[in-house]
Amino acid sequence: MTTRKLSKLNIFSFSGIQMRTFHITWLTFFVCFFGWFGIAPLMPIIREDLHLTKPQIGNAIIAAVSMTVFARLLIGRLCDTIGPRLTYTGLLLIGAIPVMGIGLSHSYESFLWFRLAIGVIGASFVITQFHTSAMFADNIKGTANAVAGGWGNLGGGVTNMVMPLILAGFVGLGYTNPEAWRLAMVVPGVMLLIMAFVYYRYTKDTPEGNYSEIERTKSADSNPVSFAQAAADWRVWALFLAYGACFGIEITFDGVAALYFTDTFKLDLATAGLLAGVFGFMNLFARAVGGIVADKVGAKYGMRGKGLLLAGVLLLEGLGIMLFSQTGSLAIAVVAMLGFAMFLKMANGATYAIVPFVNKRAVGVVSGIVGAGGNVGGVLAGFLFKSESISYEQAFLYIGMAVAVVAIVVVGTRFDKKVAIEPIAVPEVA
Q1: What's one GO MF term for it (predicted)?
Q2: 419 pLDDT exceeds 70?
């Protein structure tokens, strides 16, 4: 069994600490989505139970992603210092509390505070990308990060499909809707606690072992630089904007899709949740495609090629969102959604195919800043959906325009440092 970073990703392998960690980290991120967005597909019922107005729902959407901005900045630094294993374990234990506690809400104010606290779980993404980067060589980092992130993000789609069924199950046991949505949220809370045990017990910080078990001062790359030093690089902030324009819009859509389809096309909760789930389900392959293509482009055209690829898929995403916003047909809306979802998720993968190479001594910090950008994008988009004077259709139109502008910014950013390819002759895990 090798203790080196793997130069190949064999998704059917569970052997060795590298592949075991890979599978546990994406599965943990998948479960985190149940805690983070489990409430979203239940919002039509919660809106009726708590008598929420459109601005109040908008505030809840913003709260769900705003706390994650700060959490991701902190979590990135913790990954660099105490390691991803302890960081993830602690996050899961803390995050489970508000997920199960939100059922205690009987007013808008208490609901909003719990929704804000739940947003901490969104920082799980940074740990997932950091930990995956630690297990794979440079030539395959983009692919590995994209697959792990995509399969984890898949939880956002499955959540939209499954949580209405869990609620229906409690209703079938004789509970009323107000009781059922509260009990339904206990399920993802318990799942988070289970994954906390699994992560602590079965993963390691690096292929060589946990931070406490290895000497991390043997190379300059193992000495983390300060937050200020890492943040001084404009490329970090270009990626911050890019991730806001793709992942930020993804989590916003996860939060409003069920309501949008319910209100615009008069669908029932289960059907609206199913369509919203299809959007998230594309993470099964779309984000991975972005990472795979980015690795191939990077091998041939370097970081400049990766940057242009990212700009291209962002532009196509923006155009697709604008088309989605202008259709009054359910069939065309679904087709447009599938189109912009493909490019959005490819942009997610392409972004994190660049992140590990910006500053190898600050992978956690850079991952945290860029990841926070995703949530800043979600917060800004949330304000559009909060407004009484802007319809959901107009909000999507403005979002599409903004994404196209970010694509232009990315085109003007030079990601042209050479991609350092580690030796490929690394023995594969037995």
Answers
A1: nitrate transmembrane transporter activity
A2: no
Which tokens belong to 401?
A: 């325009």
Q: What is the pTM of this model?
A: 0.78
CA dist list (Å): 235 to 239, 303, 367, 393, 403: 6, 11, 12, 32, 17
Biggest distance spanned by C-alpha atoms of the chain: 62
Which two three-digit tokens encode residue 410? 């990315």
Helix 234-265 to helix 363-386 angle, to the nearest 10 degrees?
30
∠156-153-252 over CA atoms, to 5°? 55
Residue 420: predicted pLDDT: 41
> What confidence tens digit (pLDDT) does each residue in 37-81 have?
899 889 889 999 999 998 898 888 888 888 888 898 889 889 988
Q: Quick one: which of 295, 336, 325, 290 has its CA closest to 311?
A: 290
Asked if residue 375 lies in contact with residue 241, where contact means CB atoms within 8 angstroms, the answer is no
**Cα–Cα distance, 49 to 248 (Å, whole number):** 28
**pLDDT tens, residue by residue, 385-417:** 888 888 888 999 999 999 999 999 999 998 875
Alpha carbon distance 112, 100 (integer Å)? 14
